[in-house]
Design brief:
Elements: E1 14-20, H1 22-33, E2 37-45, H2 47-54, E3 59-61, E4 75-78, H3 83-95, E5 99-102, E6 115-119, E7 122-126, H4 133-146, H5 150-167, H6 175-184, H7 187-193, H8 196-207, H9 213-224
Parallel strand pairs: 1-2, 1-4, 2-3, 4-5
Antiparallel strand pairs: 6-7
């Protein structure tokens, strides 16, 4: 296995995207969704990035890339069609020991980006080590059909239950059998069917009184806001 699988927490970290076209915009949207403090450098910028800049969501520098742009960054992404520029971005990032990805150029990256299936905090990734992005896309599309939004909803419910158990001073080691009972009772299917009455009965049976689906999911939504 060539690549070390890892999920990065980039919330509040300074990241740089060089390139403001379609590919760059896609990288920007993902980084913004993950909470990055984002700078974008590009002479040409698509309308979506202009809007994000106007909203102060990103720091847009509409000019040519400079080597100093990588200074102080945690992660750098190059998304240009200029091969010489891509190699310069990579060299600058390597000089500062930064994480660097050059879109569609695995040979000049120190990490590559997988295909992603995501429903909230439920995330699956598929990597072909850069050998076949088309095959990774094919597998992603198959997984998207099999793993729907109910997986993210179930994860939110489990997280809310765990938070409440911890608040009630339950020892963490006691949680595993409770969650296993919920999963074995096919809680996922009940969430998929939105059968809140049966979910509430199951929660009461396994966890005791006071655990209700709507209340728990509401607490999750409030935490996000």
């Amino acid at each position: 296995m060539r690549y070390y699988p890892v999920n990065l927490d980039i919330r509040g970290r300074r990241c740089l995207v060089v390139g403001g076209g379609r590919v760059g915009a896609r990288k920007v949207n993902t980084l913004v969704a993950c909470g990055a403090v984002l700078t974008v450098v590009s002479l040409d910028v698509d309308a979506g990035l202009q809007r994000l800049a106007a909203e102060k969501t990103i720091d847009l520098k509409q000019r040519a890339y400079q080597s100093s742009d990588v200074e102080g960054m945690f992660l750098v992404i190059g998304a240009t069609d200029d091969e010489a520029l891509n190699r310069q971005i990579n060299a600058d990032a390597e000089h500062h020991n930064l994480l660097c990805n050059i879109a569609d150029r695995p040979k000049i990256c120190n990490f590559i980006l997988p295909a992603v299936v995501a429903h909230g905090d439920f995330v699956m990734t598929i990597s072909t080590a850069g050998k076949s992005p088309a095959f990774a896309k094919h597998i992603r599309q198959r997984l998207e059909k099999e793993f729907g939004p109910e997986y993210g909803q179930l994860l939110d419910l489990m997280g809310a239950i765990r938070s409440r158990l911890l608040a009630e001073a339950h020892a963490p080691e006691e949680h595993k059998p409770l969650f296993e009972r919920l999963i074995d009772a096919n809680l996922l299917a009940l969430v998929r069917e939105k059968n809140t009455d049966r979910i509430d009965r199951l929660l009461a049976t396994v966890l005791g009184p006071g655990y209700r689906y709507e209340q728990l999911m509401g607490a999750t939504q409030e935490a996000r806001e």
